[in-house]
Design a protein that fits this description.
InterPro entries: EmrB-like, MFS, MFS_dom, MFS_trans_sf. This protein is mainly α. The protein has 19 helices and no strands. Among the domains are: 182 residues, MFS general substrate transporter like domains (Growth Hormone, Chain: A); 55 residues. 77% of the residues lie in helices and 0% in strands. Helix 1 packs across helix 8, helix 4 packs antiparallel against helix 5 and helix 13 runs antiparallel to helix 16.
């Protein structure tokens, strides 16, 4: 089941580095090809909370197998797409059907295992969540270079068949309750879909469209707020809700949701900022960016057992707080980023961030799920995963907006501080003009002004990236404080049964 979860999460980012090749292969425009990722994400957020109800209705094994089979079939159809319309439809179905594989693993991890084993299960799930978005672009780029972009989707076939075979053989964990089919809340499903789809679209597209300056974003925001309120009211009032919001009555679950939200913002935010800086400022090739980003994946894989052991030995509240502070410490080094940063600068940032994030993620999962009754686990799992995805979407939207606004602000400050009457600016302009003249440029003075403006613009962007890292640091520190609001709990290690006496 964890392999299926990894497939579903990997496919979010696996196309990121191959969009130009896909665009050429299906003759799509730049605006159209961007929907290849969006079409996957938007339907997925609807299935994630719905999967809890379906698992209670049909049983976890059936839901997971249908999800895996549908995901694999849609992967093949997406790889065979000949035009953008066909690809968007199959990608949307791939995301919607495959979305059920993500939260069902969480539910089983906290119901099929005894308390002393849940930290290990959480470590495996945290490893998947961290690794999948990190290696997705690198793996996608390699598959496209070695085979073709169609193999970004065909690669799911063999793991999909393996997962179906193993889940059919070993994953008979529970039975469904057919009585839940009577009185299914169709109005609740509709308002939930409208709410989540509108919200996801606004978060995905808002930054590029200047937010409320765009009429579509404005009205979809209003629609999301209205539909969200209607959905909450319906779930609280209806006798058989799709999502059991009573989970939020548990203080530890509410704290865990906030921690998962923050972890999503930090995980996806860091994966967004670093590649963008390396490509835009340092002008590295996609392969070079991939090598730099693999540090996070390698570190995460290596330290996952250590993180799991730390969480088992201490109160989960302390584990979360320590992990988030460690994550903040690593990310804070990025606030002083310069265009001369090399591989080891980013390796340090990513390594410390990955270690802290893994500890916080495992601790947050244990805190959120450990005190809930079993009948709420499946709904809680969907909400937990939705919080992480939403946190990632909010983080990306805020960082995109921050980069745009802070670049403009720093450009204004730099231009004011280094005016043409400034001696340093005059000396630099004289040097640039002389250099342009020696290169045979027709208008050396004009070319020097353009070069000077470009240097200021580049420095403004570097400072804006530093502000982005500072924003992620603040998110970690706020979450570290919130984590202390959870109820005290004994270390997981203290809950292990005593060893049997040998006869």
């Amino acid at each position: 089941m964890a392999i299926g979860q990894f497939m579903a999460m990997l496919d979010i980012q696996i196309v990121a580095s191959s969009l130009p090749q896909i665009q050429a292969g299906i003759s799509a425009s730049a605006d159209e090809v961007s929907w290849i990722q969006t079409a996957y994400l938007i339907p997925e957020v609807v299935m994630i909370p719905l999967s809890g109800y379906l698992s209670r209705l049909w049983g976890t094994q059936k839901v997971f197998m249908v999800s895996c089979a549908g995901f694999t079939i849609m992967s093949v159809l997406t790889g065979l797409s000949s035009n953008i319309d066909q690809m968007i439809v199959t990608r949307a179905l791939q995301g919607f059907i495959g979305g059920a594989m993500i939260p069902t693993v969480y539910a089983i991890g906290f119901t099929a295992f005894p308390m002393e084993r849940r930290a290990t299960a959480g470590m495996i799930m945290g490893l998947i969540i961290s690794l999948a978005p990190m290696i997705g672009p690198t793996l996608g780029g390699q598959l496209t270079d070695l085979l073709s972009w169609r193999w970004l989707f065909f690669v799911n076939v063999v793991p999909g068949i393996l997962v179906l075979t193993l889940v059919a053989r070993f994953a008979d964990f529970d039975k469904g309750d057919p009585s839940l089919a009577l009185g299914f809340d169709w109005p609740g499903l509709i308002v939930m879909a409208v709410f989540l789809v509108s919200m996801q679209y606004v978060l995905e597209e808002g930054a590029s469209k200047s937010w409320m300056a765009d009429d579509r974003i404005l009205w979809l925001t209003v629609l999301a707020v209205v539909a969200g309120g209607a959905f909450i009211w319906r779930q609280l009032a209806y006798r058989q809700p799709i999502v059991q919001l009573k989970c939020f009555a548990d203080r530890n679950f509410s704290v865990g949701i906030l921690i998962n939200f923050a972890n999503g913002a930090v995980l996806f935010g860091g994966t967004f900022l670093i590649p963008l800086f390396l490509g835009r400022i340092e002008r590295l090739t996609p392969a070079q960016v991939g090598v730099t980003m693999l540090v996070s994946g390698v570190v995460t894989f290596m330290i996952a057992p250590v993180a799991g052991r730390i969480v088992r030995q201490f109160d989960p509240r302390l584990s979360m707080s320590f992990g988030l502070c460690l994550c903040a410490f690593g990310i804070w080094s990025g606030h002083a980023v310069t265009k001369n940063w090399g591989f080891w600068n980013f390796a340090w940032l990513q390594g410390v961030r990955a270690f802290g994030s893994m500890i916080a993620m495992i601790g947050g999962q244990l805190t959120a799920m450990s005190t809930l009754p079993p009948q709420l686990m499946k709904s809680a799992s969907g909400i937990l995963n939705l919080a992480r995805n939403t946190g990632g979407a909010v983080g990306l939207a805020l960082l995109s907006t921050s980069l745009t606004q802070q670049t403009a602000s720093h450009m204004t400050d730099l231009t004011s501080a280094v005016g043409m009457s400034d001696g340093r600016a005059q000396a630099m302009m004289a040097g640039l003009t002389q250099r342009m003249s020696s290169m045979g440029v027709a208008d050396p003075a004009g070319a020097a002004r353009k070069a000077f403006d470009f240097m200021l613009s580049e420095q403004a962007q570097v400072l804006a990236f530093g502000d982005g890292f500072a924003l992620l640091t603040l998110t970690c520190l706020c979450a570290a404080v919130i984590s202390l609001l959870a109820k005290p709990a004994p270390p997981v290690a203290a809950l292990q049964p005593p060893p049997r006496e040998e006869r």
